[in-house]
Amino acid sequence: MKPLMRIFIPTFTIILLSACSPNSDAENATNDNKLPAVEVESDATQDPTAHESNQTNPEMTQAEVIEAIKTDLKTNLTKLLPSELPLQNEKYLTATTTSDESHYEVVFYESNEPTAINHETSADGQIIARLHAQKYESKQEADEQIAFENFSELGGQPIDLGYGITGYQDAGAGSMWTSWNEGRWAIATHTRTTDGEKGEELAKEATEFLETHTLPIPKPNGFAHIDVYQSNNRIAWQNENVVYMLDEVKDPMIALEIVTSIE
């Protein structure tokens, strides 16, 4: 192996060489040419046809993603969103949104990699939940969407759900409902008559959960329909002539977890 040779060049020589180097102008030109590339990338993220948020950082928390969703909604309605959504390990939260002055809708997805809000691949993920809000012409029209019921007045077989709450069971056409009221909320579980005990179990589980978790305050009313078979869970409530609804959630207890985190 040849011994390494150390070469010492005086500083002023390096300066002269640098000043005289024919590559200096070329390098400056190369650096100048890099600037427009950055600008083009920035413009692409703001492409109005894509209508996507620039939030793709894998380090973003759920709270930051949800705040980005809220910013993306262009509406005159009060923007209510969950503060937390259930995600599997190593999954990321994303969403698609639509909105106008009297309506908005957010579909939450979990994706395998960080995905911008309203990106063309956002909807490729697994749906977690959908939240939509709609303003009606009158409070009466909004009332009709809720169809609030006082189950103690409707009758049915009374059943103790615990915590001083009485539910009422009613069956017909192969279905069984266990229904009860909590404040201005009307809540009902659905099952088949052949699985009647499962509806009662779900009602008791929901009652226990709601002892430590608070549903949104309705003005005036709200309803929750939760299904043993995870097929048609819907939770809706009024704010005068605006109706908010959460659906597209398979697990009824997760639906309650999400709606009680809305703020």
Specify the oligomeric state: single chain
| Unreliable runs | 1-51
Count of alpha/pi helices? 7
Residue-averaged pLDDT, rounded? 84
The SSE string, one letter per element, is: HHHEEEHHEEEEHEEEH
Instruction: State the share of residues found in helices, binned by percent.
Output: 25-40%
Number of E-state strands: 10
Number of domains: 2
| Shape label | globular
- Main beta-sheet annotation: 10 strands, mixed
Q: Cα distance, first to last residue?
A: 72 Å
Strand-pairing-aware structural class: alpha+beta
Sequence of strands across the biggest β-sheet? 1-2-3-10-9-8-7-6-5-4
Strand content: 25-35%
Report the radius of gyration as a whole number of Å. 29 Å
Keywords: Signal
Signal peptide: 1-26
Protein name: Lipoprotein
Mind explaining what this structure looks like?
The chain has helices at 11-20, 23-45, 62-72, 139-146, 151-154, 196-209, 252-259; strands at residues 92-100, 103-111, 126-135, 157-162, 165-172, 175-182, 185-192, 222-227, 234-239, 242-247. It has 263 residues and is of the alpha+beta class. It folds into two domains: 62-135, no CATH class; 140-259, no CATH class. Strands 1-2-3-10-9-8-7-6-5-4 form a ten-stranded mixed β-sheet, with helices on both faces. A hairpin with a 2-residue loop joins strand 6 and strand 7. The radius of gyration is 29 Å and the shape is globular. Residues 1-51 have low confidence and may be disordered. Keywords: Signal. It comes from Psychrobacillus lasiicapitis. Residues 1-26 form the signal peptide. This is Lipoprotein.
